[in-house]
Amino acid sequence: MAVARDKRPPMVRRTALRDGLVDIDGARIAEATEELRHRSRATLHDRLHRVRMAGGLAVQAGLAAGIAYLISHKVLGNPQPVFAPISAVGTLAASVGQRFRRTVELIAGVGIGVAIGDFLIYLLGTGAWQLGLVVTVAILLTIFAGASVAIVIQAAATAVLIVTLSPSTQNLEIPRFVDAFLGGGVALLVTAVLLPLNPLRVINRAARPALDLLATQLDVTADGLRSRDRAGIQRALDRLRNNKEELATLSEAIEGAKETATLSPARWHRRSELIHYAEAADPIDRAMRNTGTLIRRSVTLIEDEEPVPDPMPDAINHLAESVRLLKHEFAAGEEPEKARERSLRAVSEAGRAYGAGVGFSGSVVVAQIRTTASDLLVASGIEQEEANRCIRSAFGEQERPVGEPVEPTEPPKPPTAPPIG
């Protein structure tokens, strides 16, 4: 509700406060202060979570850089072992789950850059325009050969280093190539043998923000429907739409966990445990999108002043609890039976809401509850066909809305349940 601003002069307002009247601006200021305090806590929590997520990678990168430096300097006798640690860190900093490919691309890019740089330096010498020409030729040749973006960037960067460092450093080309190979190999060694991360722990940490986001916005929507708070539901919709970072983090963590379980002998026994998460990524993504439709239609429902039967927000709360249970049971390595039961309870409540009578947008909300519940069942490990059968059974045959007359010669009843999907 909008609060009228007190337009009286400040002196008059202060006098009124001394006389015991209500401070009109006080509630607004307190609310804004509390919101800022909440955002500060949320920001700190997010930053600490990111630090925990990246902690293992940071230790791996530090260890790989140190080992690559020692081998290049002490074993191979390279007086300037710069490129080995850079290559090790570059390999580990690549998208998780693509480190084998990244190492190959790193070495390929180095080879192309060394060849082009060395050849053009021999023909043209060094200088500013020669540097520009070397980089241009390296990029165009790698693109013409159909190389990936990573190889193009690596070839150009290597060409720059060859042109700028070759005049002052003898025999740079071969150590550069060897160092690149060494750094990539050390990075894979650290990832697979010396310090392999626990793949399930990595996935659990990555899944938490995505699933918490989904559950929280479902709860906000349920509360908004009960109080007919359109603005609150709209905020939930806006927040859920900004879920790309959470989903990308989860997807990347799953790929990285599968890579670790493949490369590391110490983690081979985790392969079967990763199947749940690997198969759950797509249905969780679908649940996010279908929940977005659910929330958007909830906004329209409030705007059109359609009825909100009590079971409808209850059903959405059950969906939120199902998401939380799924997160907990996955993290504990348990069969997600409680999450499945709560999803079906959400569908049952949605059926009661439909039977009590809903408008057009309300029927869409009911349909999206069914569809989201189906997504969560599939994420829990149930086949799509079986999930659809369970959804239909839980929804049940609904009675005619209260107060609607029953005709004695009633035509065949249309389907009582919104279609799944």
What does this structure look like?
There is one protein chain. With 421 residues, the chain is mainly α. The protein has 2 domains: 53-194, no CATH class; 199-397, Methane Monooxygenase Hydroxylase, Chain G, domain 1 (Up-down Bundle), CATH 1.20.58. It is 75% helix and 0% strand. It is built from 15 helices and no strands. α3 crosses α7 (173-194) and α4 (99-124) crosses α5 (128-144). The longest helix is centred in the first third of the chain and has 52 residues, at 24-75. The relative contact order is 0.07. Residues 1-5, 10-19 and 399-421 have low confidence and may be disordered.
Write the layout of secondary structure elements.
Blueprint: H1 10-18, H2 24-75, H3 83-92, H4 99-124, H5 128-144, H6 149-165, H7 173-194, H8 199-227, H9 230-241, H10 244-263, H11 274-303, H12 311-331, H13 337-356, H14 360-379, H15 384-395
Write a brief structural summary.
The chain is an all-alpha fold and 421 residues long.
**Helix percent band:** over 70%
Tally of discrete structural domains: 2
Query: Mind telling me the CATH class of the largest domain?
Result: Mainly Alpha
Specify the structural class: mainly alpha
Label this structure with key terms:
421 residues, mainly alpha, Methane Monooxygenase Hydroxylase, Chain G, domain 1, 15 helices, disordered N terminus, disordered C terminus
